[in-house]
Amino acid sequence: MKPFTFTLRQEPPQRVDLSALTPDRLAGKSVAQIEAIELGVTRISTKVGDLFKISEGDLKTVRYEGGSSRFDLLGAKLLPGFAIHVEGDVGAQCGRLAKGGRITVAGNAGPHAASGNLGAEMEIKGDVGDFLAGPLAGELAGMAGGRVVVRGKAGERAGDRLRRGILVIEGDAGEDLGARVIAGTILVLGEAKGRIGYLNKRGSIVLARGGCFGSTYVDCGAHELTFARLFARSLRDHSAPAADLLSRKLRRYGGDTAVYGKGEILTAD
Amino acid sequence: MPDIIRNGVTIDDNFAEAFPMSGTGILITAPNAKWARQAALTMTGFATSVIGCGCEAGIDREVPPEETPDGRPGVRALLFAMSSKDAEKQLVNRLGQCVLTCPGSAVYSTVAGEFEIKVGDAVRQFGDKWQMSKVVDDRRYWRVPVMDGEFFCEGKVGLTKKSVGGGNLLIMGADWDKTMRATEAAVSAIDGVADAIAPFPGGIVRSGSKVGSKYKGMSASTNDAYCPTLRGVTKSELDADIGCVLEIVIDGLTDNAVREAMRAGLHAIIEMGPEQGAKRVGAGNYGGKLGPFHYHLKELLP
Known about the structure:
The complex is a heterodimer.
Chain A: E1 3-8, E2 16-17, H1 23-26, H2 31-35, H3 48-51, E3 52-55, E4 58-65, E5 71-72, E6 83-87, E7 102-105, E8 118-124, E9 144-150, E10 164-169, E11 185-188, E12 204-207, E13 218-223, H4 226-235, H5 240-246, E14 250-255, E15 263-268
Chain B: E1 4-6, E2 9-11, E3 15-29, H1 33-43, H2 50-53, E4 56-63, E5 74-81, H3 84-99, E6 106-109, E7 115-118, H4 120-123, E8 132-136, E9 139-146, E10 149-154, E11 156-173, H5 176-191, E12 196-197, E13 209-211, E14 220-222, E15 244-252, H6 255-276, E16 280-282, E17 293-296
Parallel strand pairs in B: 2-16, 6-10
Antiparallel strand pairs in B: 1-2, 3-5, 3-6, 3-11, 3-17, 4-5, 7-11, 8-9, 9-10, 11-15, 11-16, 12-15, 13-14
Helix pairs in contact in B: 1-3, 5-6
């Protein structure tokens, strides 16, 4: 069945909050009602009807034909069983606090993508901004479940305060990758710049390229890890290069010993 | 009642009486098949009968690397007990003493049951706070550092109360060699049936028991009606041509698994015939009033 589709008419004149356009919140509404939903975040009104042409379909899948870096909070609090696809870019906080389901973005995503994600599968084919999967200011934990695959680059502080779940960054990662990680797993297939795993508690950061991780990460030798084999199988369909990385012998650096120190950085040996 | 004869083998018009049990199990993998099997053998050792061992356990099948979660060779071991509490206690103890200790091993859930037993969530404490948890595809696993690397163990495994224990075949032949030949053929046929195990040594028990004893406090004693050396002096079930009786006891995760295992065993015995193997096949029961599952031999014939 064809998806419920929003076709972009024009670039939004201001940032828009798309959290109202998840499948569960659209259910039971007529096209006229949906077109009247206010998306603007300033005193100037921007309604769904101003931006999109709607063609009705199965609400299990919502599709955006055309995106914009002004599309904020797309797929926020998405529920399991639903899917959203964007043929274009998205703005800040894409998939914020999503409980499940699947979000795919064909273009780039802004900052705080997958922030506080609780279980959604997300795929971003382009680059993402800073604080991928990180918490908003004042929150104690970042992403707490689900899986996010970024085909391009990630900005600074990707995986900040990650608590649970898997982040795969196929391109490069910016400064302070995996800062303050509580637990969970981050894989970077490109280059990771600057300080890595700062104050990491129990998380695993897997890097295709090694480097110097500072004096608070301690070399624990290269090992064949059974858990990595299981991860590799689980990731094979989502990111073949990530699965290949996990299938290799991995050198383990224990840390960050400046804090709890039960985490690790694993690099291809 | 006329005897049922198939390929020269007499089949008693009798039935096996079986009981509900709690069944669980684990998939053990290791860097090679030898050590996966060793872990499973150790874990299922001293697990022939719930009466003295607390549980009945055995190897269901070897699992090829393509089918295991981590791509290493595996063995599926099943464990049955009279209550879910007993099953949990036995599995956790055996996992901790026999599988955790076995070089290279990893443990995964392999039974889809209505309940879950915490196994990794108990064994993880061996890690003395160095253990790490990983959640993959909504299932929690534990990485416990050990001297050969890491012991990797799923947090919870399934348990079902729909299991059945006590399916059985009594194989009777002219002498030990022939009876054993038929019984071994039956055991290897039963090995091919999924979700069922034969928990006794090599799948075979030679000391079948009856309920009660002449001694006070003994709940079970030798099944004298099937002892060939007592044929003349007791109320024997054996004719003059029977010199040896062996039994196969079968536990399965489902009623159907036990039935199919009994069918496979029976067919293998009949196929061998009385010249090479067994002359007669029977089944044990307690009159049909104790166990809710009855497996009539005549319904399992080829």
